[in-house]
Amino acid sequence: MMMLEDSGANYTEVKLDNKNAGKASRVVHIRNVLSDATESEIISLGVPFGRVTNILLLKGKNQAFLEMENETAATTMVNYYSHVTANVRGKPVYVQFSNHKELKTENAPAQQTAAAQAALAAAQSLMPQSHGAQPGDTLGGQNTVLRVIVENMLYPVTVDILHQIFSKFGAVLKIITFTKNNTFQTLIQFADSVSAQAAKLSLDGQNIYNACCTLRIDYSKLTTLNVKYNNEKSRDYTRPDLPSGDGQPPIDPAMAYVPGMPGIFPAMPTAAAAAAAGLRMAGQMQQGCVLLVSNLNAELVTPEVLFTLFGVYGDVHRVKIIFAKKDTALVQLAEPHQAQTAMTHLNGVKMFGKPLRITLSKHQLVQLPKEGQPDAGLTKDFTSSPLHRFKKPGSKNFMNIYPPSATLHLSNIPPNVTEQDITSAFSRHGSVKAFKFFQKDRKMALIQMGSVEEAVTALVAMHNYQLSNSSHLRVSFSKATI
What we know:
Elements: E1 3-4, E2 27-31, H1 39-46, E3 52-58, E4 63-68, H2 71-81, E5 86-88, E6 91-97, E7 103-104, H3 110-124, E8 145-151, H4 159-166, E9 172-180, E10 183-190, H5 193-203, E11 207-209, E12 212-219, E13 234-236, H6 271-276, E14 290-294, H7 303-310, E15 316-321, E16 329-333, H8 336-346, E17 350-351, E18 354-355, E19 357-360, E20 379-381, E21 407-411, H9 419-426, E22 432-437, E23 445-449, H10 452-462, E24 474-477
Antiparallel strand pairs: 1-7, 2-4, 2-6, 3-4, 5-6, 8-10, 8-12, 9-10, 9-13, 11-12, 14-16, 14-19, 15-16, 15-20, 17-18, 21-23, 21-24, 22-23
C-alpha cells in the first residue's frame, strides 16, 4: 500500500488533521480536491514552483499530498496560494504545509504507481531548463520576466488589474510598476517561461480598456525581480511577509475617454464614473461578485454577521438573507477576486455550529427590495459602510489575509485597556486559551480561542467593539500562534 514516512498506516488510514501544518515542509497538503481529479491536475499546481518528486492522491478523502524537490519550492508554492486562489477544474482547493516530511510510495499498487510516475514524467517535461540550475533555485530564469509598456493610458492600471490579466496564463510571482520617460511600465515575473511566452503572444498589442491602455510586451533582460515592498506599486506573491513601505501616491486618473474597439475589459463611460466606482475594473464589477451561502444557523445569522465575517476577505456591498429560506443568503462583494478569496477561505468553516456551504451565485448583483416591499430587515446595503477593510490602495490589510484560525489579531487597542478587559470581553464568546500584547506596539495583541469556530464567533461579535469613546477594536484572523 502507499505509505507516508511517519504514518505507520496505509493511505486509507492516514490521519489528515495536519495539526502541525504551518511548519515548513517540502510536502504540501491539498484539500477540497474533486473525487475524480487526476494526478496530472494536482501536479500542475506545483510545477510552476519547482520539480515535483512525488504525489499521493486520496480520492476517497478529497485530498492530496504533493512532494516538492526541496523546502524552498514548497514554501514559495504555499505562500503564493495564500494570496492567489488555487483551482482544479474551476473549483477552489486549499494549499498548506503537511506535517509529513516525505512521501514513500514503494509499496503502492502497481497501477497507481504507474499513473503517478507517468504524470510526474509528463510534468517535468514542461519544466523550464532554468529550474534546477542550483539546489533550491526554483524560480526565475531566461524569458520568465516580461517588460510591459502601457501606451495611451487614459485610466489607471493597478497591480491588481495586471495580476488579474496576466495570471490567466500561469502563476505570476512578482510585479513591479514604475514610470520611465513619462510612460507607465511594469515588470512581471512568471514562475515558468511557458506561461510568460503564452502571455506575451496573447496580450501584446491588446487594449485593457476600449481603445486605450495598450499593452506593448517584450522580454526583460532580468531573470528575477527583487521586490522590497508589497504595496500599490509592487507585489511579491511568494513573500506575504514583506512590509508595505512608504506609500506612494496612486496614478492620477485620466480625464478623457476615447470610444473604439473592445479591449480586455469593457469601456469606462466617464472618468467621473470611474472615480465614483473606486476605479474598480470596468465591466468586472459585478461579474462573479455574488456568493450563495447556505447551511446557515437561521436563528443567529443576520446581514451584519455575514458583512463582518465576509468583510475579512473583501468589501461586502450587499447581503440578502432569503426570506423563504433563512438558512441561505446572497453576499455581494466589491470585486470578483474578493468573492473568490472569501469562498476559498470560508467554505466548510463552522459558524454557530454549522459548516458554511459557499458557491458562486448565478446572480450578478443583490437586488434591494422595492420601496414599500416587506423585507423584515433581511436585505442590507453596506456600500457606504466605514468598516470596509480594502478601500484604501496599498492598505496593509491586503497583505494580512489568512484562513480562519483559532488565533485572532487585535489592533487599535487604547493604552488604558488591560489584558483583563479584553479577555473578559472575548470570554463571552468562547474559551480564551492565551493572550499576548505585541512587545513593540501595545496597540496590537494576539488572542487564542478554544477552536476555530469559537474564533469565528468572537471575530463576528468583537470586530468594531467599542473599547473607549474614540476607539473601536479591529479583529482579523492571524497566521501566528501564541
